[in-house]
Amino acid sequence: MDVSEFREFGKAVVDHIADYWESLPNRHALPVVKPGDIAKSLPSKAPVKGEHWEEILKDIDSIIQPGLTHWQSPNFHGYFPSGHSFPSIVGELLTAGFGCMAFNWMGSPAGTELEITMMNWLGQALGLPQYFLNCDEGPGGGVIHGSASEAVLVALLAARDKTLNSFINKQNGVRRSNLRENLVAYTSDQANSCIEKAAKIASVTIKQLKTHNCQLRGSTLRDEIFKDKANGFVPCIVIATMGTTGTCACDCLDEIGQICKEENIWFHIDAAYAGSAMICPEYRPFMGGVELSDSINVSPHKWMLVNYDCTATWFRDHRYVIDSIGVKRVYLDDQSSEYGIDYHNWQTPLGRRIRSIKLWFVLRSYGIEGIQRYIRNHVALAKYFEQLVNTDSRFEVCSSCMGLVSFRLKRRNSLTELLLKTIIDDGKYYYTPYKIGNKFVIRFAVCTRITKSEDIKNAWNAIVDYTNTMQWDLNG
Ligand code: PLP
Hints:
Layout: H1 3-23, H2 37-41, H3 53-64, H4 86-98, H5 109-125, E1 141-145, H6 148-170, H7 176-182, E2 183-188, H8 193-202, E3 205-209, H9 218-230, E4 234-241, H10 253-263, E5 266-270, E6 295-298, H11 300-303, E7 311-315, H12 319-325, H13 356-390, E8 395-401, E9 404-409, H14 413-426, E10 432-436, E11 439-445, H15 453-469
Parallel strand pairs: 2-3, 2-4, 4-5, 5-6
Antiparallel strand pairs: 1-7, 6-7, 8-9, 9-11, 10-11
Bound molecules: pyridoxal-5'-phosphate.
């Protein structure tokens, strides 16, 4: 493909994306396909001769689009938002167009320096402590990771090695391998699955502590640390959540942070979804205690209009990250050390795209006020849904925070399970399940940029209709 063909192909694809967006309000959230349908429509081998782009694009229409789950449809309310906006798509396109590998400064000076600046812009916009910013004089700093999973893993590795090194320095003769076995990390029983996965990768025992109303309290953490220390365990990190996946609950960050400070334990906050709301000053009280944290991750690719992948992670002292996972090679030495940041040593892969372009485009196109409007609108839409649920005495709201509401039919779990199955089988709407204690609930997340109050009302009316037509034993 030459440049002139690329122009045609690229323009056709932009039109295609625009058409797709115009069609989204009328699309069902789920595709009408059975497992294996898409794979069956594809040839079993790659073509020997190259094909024209028009042929390829036709198959997007006939094979791929019919098999998409429409995360950007206003009828999609599953999981959390998959961040998306036109400036961000264009930023992605440019990143791919430039095709740079910005793993060190020389790999693309603009990549490193734009990222440093964006992490300062974003950190300031979210009201984070100054010590996290690259522009502060201290050893703090921010980086863009691919995902919250990567951010948590990097924080866990840094905390693990910081703890090991400080113990070995204090206790002469103690064997690193023996000490490693005794390390323990803490999180809550509501924490995202990625935290358990990070602990598995890092070979650190993780304790998922019991919550009250889905929140981890300081007293629970304190008791556990006390018991563990008495049994010879060595606490290395507490990973609290601000905005859990299940119900958007916020752990008691100030209580947890205080304990971490007293016990000299690394304190990380996973604010993958709800962290974006800190751009609105009225939500900052949820973040009380952040000034005690050692690291934090917020994912603009969830709730700040930036396409996946873009997780912003800040460290109080990035040198612990470098000590833990940093590597040196002659071929990576680019004489940029005086600039201070070689981002490949802040992440798990070596290669890195310039993700900061899409973040830059979003921050500039929307401005802080535009993003605030977007977040406030989602919260207002969720509140509206909560009010609608409260109008029907057959239902109860089980949790409501930010853009996420969970609800259920009163009485047996099996009724709510049947309701969810009926909705999903129909395919127009999509919701995900959760369990709060032993209550089975349906999570209703406001997900897309184009969701309007009529969509919320229609979704609720459909829930009522599904409920009315379900065959069940009302007396059960
Ligand atoms: N943390 C929380 C609170 C989440 O809700 C999620 C995903 O929904 C994650 C972490 C994992 O995010 P990622 O897919 O960016 O790794």
